[in-house]
Amino acid sequence: MLVQETWYHPIAEDDMNVIMEYNCDYRRYTQATYAQMQAKKPIFYKSAESAERNFSTNSNKALVVAKVISTHISSCNTCSKDWDTEYYPEYIVVLHD
User: Fold this and answer.
1) 68 or 97, greater pLDDT
2) Rounded distance, CA 9 to CA 64, Å?
3) Domains and CATH numbers, the chain
4) How far is CA 41 from its chain centroid?
5) CA-based nearest residue to 67, from 47, 46, 88
6) Contact 9/44 with Cβ under 8 angstroms?
7) 96/86 Cα distance (integer angstroms)
8) Parallel, antiparallel, or unpaired: how do β-strands 87-95 and 78-80 relate?
9) Which residues pair with 4 in a beta bridge?
10) Residue 11: phi, psi to the nearest 5?
């Protein structure tokens, strides 16, 4: 059975248009994280706090709130997906200090 859960994907505020046009394609980000570049796929966090804490940037941060589909992700704090059909960005929250 497929499970759909809410997960969080951190980005730089400058990359909001990338998300809207190309989904979570880290290759198009102006500031991809080291983990995303190493894994070659977007990384999602179970909590907004973890997503924000694990992303450093010199510009304003934003969180993509996404629905992620999988069968075995509930017990993990992070996940990465191979196919963009396995997640859907619902909205973007801009974080300001």
Assistant:
1) 68
2) 5
3) 3-95 (3.90.228.10)
4) 10
5) 88
6) yes
7) 29
8) unpaired
9) 69
10) -145, 165
Say if residue 71's pLDDT is above 60: no
- Amino acid sitting at position 80: S
Measured between alpha carbons, how far is residue 75 from residues 27, 44, 48, 97 in Å?
A: 28, 13, 16, 31
**Distance between CA atoms of residues 34 and 49, nearest Å:** 19
Give the pLDDT confidence score for residue 80 in this predicted structure. Answer: 84
Q: In the chain, where do the E strands start and end?
A: 3-12, 43-45, 61-70, 78-80, 87-95
How many angstroms separate the CA atoms of 10 and 56, rounded? Answer: 9
pTM of the predicted model as reported, rounded to 2 decimal places: 0.86
Distance between CA atoms of residues 62 and 81, nearest Å: 20
Task: Report residue 78 as tokens.
Answer: 């992070």
Q: Are 93 and 62 in contact (CB under 8 A)?
A: yes
Q: What is the DSSP letter of 62?
A: E
Amino acid of residue 73: I
Structure tokens belonging to residue 53: 């804490």
